[in-house]
Design brief:
Elements (H helix, E strand, L loop, with lengths): L2 E8 L2 E5 L5 E3 L4 E4 L6 H6 L9 H16 L3 E4 L15 H12 L2 E5 L14 E3 L1 E4 L2 E4 L10 E3 L4 E7 L2 E10 L3 E3 L10 E2 L3 H4 L6 E6 L4 E7 L2 H5 L14 E5 L1
Parallel strand pairs: 4-5, 5-6, 6-7, 9-10, 10-13, 11-14
Antiparallel strand pairs: 1-2, 1-17, 2-3, 3-4, 8-9, 11-12, 12-13, 12-15, 15-16
Helix pairs in contact: 2-3
């Protein structure tokens, strides 16, 4: 059985888009996560929104699974890794142990976010406002002016497709050949449609959304790519346009 993988080419660098909502940069052995929002559930509970208190542990297990699959030498967390400035103090002992062990496995970089400008020192890793590596620059919030190679989070992109009168909304990557916005990774993170001006306005021309599926990532129409708008949403169909490609791997 082959596994179909979806890639986005950004400023000359090829990134593998994982259906868990992370991006992997093979050339640099780097795993990229955005908007993990640990302890969002406990934060909402303080204001009366009583959700199941398992979001942090579920998210940590997903991160560990990605580390096991890709075995990266570097992880870049693109800000808002914690939902608020006190979130790390609400982790229980097991969750602290899980997170500390994950950080210790690799060269971990915490990008400062608007929710967590100063991740706790006990976690280890490097804290910075942005990081430039090769042809890419990693930051939390996308810059208003296009910067080639920008990889950012913050906006929690989602996309919707409609077939036979039924709609499906999923988290999604948004990208053209110059920049990439990564979906939120946290279990309770919300989402903003890729056609909202806050996201669509980042792209000067055509761009695509890459929706997260259960087993793979699907490239779907966002704006200005008629090939995607016409294509059938089937397992064996994929567009062939700039900044977008798939490859079968054994």
């Amino acid at each position: 059985m082959s596994i179909e993988r979806t890639y986005a080419d950004v400023n000359g660098e090829r990134l593998l888009l994982d259906c868990a909502g992370a991006a992997f940069w093979p050339a640099e052995q780097t795993l990229v996560l955005a908007d993990i929002h640990l302890e969002k559930g406990s934060s909402l509970a303080r204001f009366g929104a009583l959700l199941p208190p398992y979001d942090t542990r579920t998210t940590l297990k997903r991160i560990i699974a990605l580390l096991d699959v890709y075995r990266p030498t570097r992880v870049i967390a693109l800000g808002d890794s914690f939902h608020d400035v006190d979130a790390a103090e609400r982790l229980d002992e097991d969750e602290r142990s899980m997170l500390s062990a994950a950080v210790a496995r690799t060269d971990w970089v915490w990008i400062e976010g608007n929710h967590d400008p100063h991740p706790p020192a006990w976690l280890g890793g490097k804290v910075t406002s942005e990081l430039a590596v090769g042809g890419l620059v990693f930051r939390h919030e996308p810059s208003p002016a296009a910067q080639p190679g920008e990889i950012a989070g913050h906006l929690h992109p989602c996309a919707t497709v409609t077939r036979h009168g039924q709609s499906l909304r999923r988290r999604a990557f948004a990208a053209d050949s110059l920049r990439l916005v990564i979906p939120a990774f946290g279990a309770y993170a919300g989402g903003l449609d890729v056609l909202d001006d806050a996201i669509a306005g980042l792209f000067a021309g055509a761009f695509a959304a890459y929706m997260l599926g259960g087993r793979r990532v699907y490239a779907v129409a966002a704006r200005g790519i008629p090939q995607l708008a016409r294509r059938k949403m089937t397992e064996d169909s994929q567009p062939s346009v700039p900044a977008m490609s798939t490859a079968n791997s054994p």
